[in-house]
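Exercise: predict the structure of this protein bound to zinc ion.
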Amino acid sequence: MDAQVSGMTMMAWRVRRPGPIADAPLRRVSTALPRPQQSELLVAVRACGVCRTDLHVVEGDLPVHRPGVTPGHEVVGEVVEVGAEAGDDFAVGDRVGVAWLRHTCGSCRYCRRGDENLCPQSRYTGWDDDGGYAEFVTVPAAFAHHLPAGYSDSELAPLLCAGIIGYRSLLRADLPPGGRLGIYGFGGSAHITAQVALARGAEVHVMTRGSRARELALELGAASAQGATDPPPVPLDSAILFAPVGDLVPVVCQALDAGGTCAIAGIHLSDVPPLNYQRHLFRERQIRSVTSNTRADAREFLAFAAEHHIEVTTPEYALGEADRALGDLAAGRIAGAAVLLA
Ligand SMILES: [Zn+2]
Ligand SMILES: [Zn+2]
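Solution:
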């Protein structure tokens, strides 16, 4: 790093005290640039997506892993420094993606069998380590991503969590070829995942509360769009629950056809009410959770995005407006996936 960069300070947001977004839990600070470890890259942030998980970190729905953490795990930036042991996959000047998963042990039983998303030693950007609501961020080179061409920084950012986690959720939902997919909640992740499913020949039905989100769903090619608890016009082979609302689990189960699968995409879900075996589960309906993602999921999804252009609706905010962006997300005022621009 040159002397000019090492003497610099940067702007970053930190979680002062987790709590409702209306109580201003984030604080904007001026702080020294982070120093990359030998295996890491230092990245100048150009865009960072605003994910519901950031809201869960900021509002305290998730336990504190690092007091005063800087949120943000959908970073598109430029490599400005490569650690001595960071390999040669990335060079200074490269465009790079920093996503949610940033460390796994590589040796536990889950890692060894290819389920690194279940590694108990896993670490996450913007929760265990500082993330991209800042001008600079570090990332272990082994967990950094090359990004597909043909997208702006702003369009790429939401692909890095909304896109990747949505992709894993779609895999977990076991959608048969040409099958009927129900999508519950239609925010950033859902609007990307719907396009992946449509590109694979699915018939997509969207259940969501916002009228703008329903309009967006129909514009993107959904076969139908209705209210959050309305029954879809046909029984579903698969469903993905994106809304973090446990009360919707029985609603989704009742919409599933025999043998159907519901994948729950969120990291946080409010309590699920009691289920009735006959009405909600019998005839081999299944409920599955989705936990983070593997690097293989990320690579597969980013390769898909390179081959099929995904329309990403990205309301843009300045980096200095992160608190306002999260407030809009909490209030359901965002159609698509919000992005902070540095
Ligand atoms: Zn492990
Ligand atoms: Zn996320």
